[in-house]
Write a structure and sequence with these properties.
This protein is mostly helical and about 55 residues long. It contains 6 helices and no strands.
Length: about 55
């Protein structure tokens, strides 16, 4: 959520993950497991080899 990102950015110890996990609009749509999956770097990197192959890198 943009409001959570803005709030986290403007706080010295901004915790975007924590703000998202507590946001009622987000939790109405996503389960705690789904929110955690969004912050899992391995989830985002799982297809990186395919991208490198397509780019001949």
């Amino acid at each position: 959520m943009q409001s959570c990102a803005h709030q986290a950015w403007n706080q010295p110890d901004g915790d975007f993950h924590g703000l998202i996990a507590q946001d009622p609009k987000v939790t109405a749509v996503l389960s705690p497991a789904e929110i955690e999956e969004c912050f899992d770097s391995q989830q985002h990197l799982k297809n990186l080899n395919v991208v490198y192959q397509r780019l001949n890198i």
